[in-house]
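INFO batch 0412 | record 1 of 1 | parsing
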Amino acid sequence: MGDSLIVTLGIAAILAIIVLALCLVGVRRINLRRALGTIDASICVATGRWQMGVCRFQGAELEWFRMFSLSPTPRYSFERSRLELLRRREPGEAEAARVQPGTVVVELSYAGQEVLLAMRFDEYTGLSSWLEAGPRPGLNRLD
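INFO prediction complete | emitting tokens
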């Protein structure tokens, strides 16, 4: 009887840890989305793999957080002054299965590297407005 009790307690502890981790991920996501300037956006960088996450406009940076993570720090951080909006397009056939339905793919360039974000169109308009509102190098000089 003692061995079965130990096994049962072990399984219960593992399930409790899993439930706690899922709750923490949910609380983190709620806290991220509560802040102004956040949008749901999948990202694809040099690896070619799409990942779900949340973008946050934080001052002069665009931060991207993984959807299912406990980390309080962003996975990617892009300076607005070095981020260039190239174009937006509909997802291709291969991408359509990897991004959420009803999204547009936004092609960006960051320090010469291509970055793709998939987001809803209304969120794209917010991103493009934020980028356009940023300072442009050389335009703020007083000569």
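INFO post-check: The CA atoms of residues 50 and 95 lie 8 Å apart.
INFO record closed
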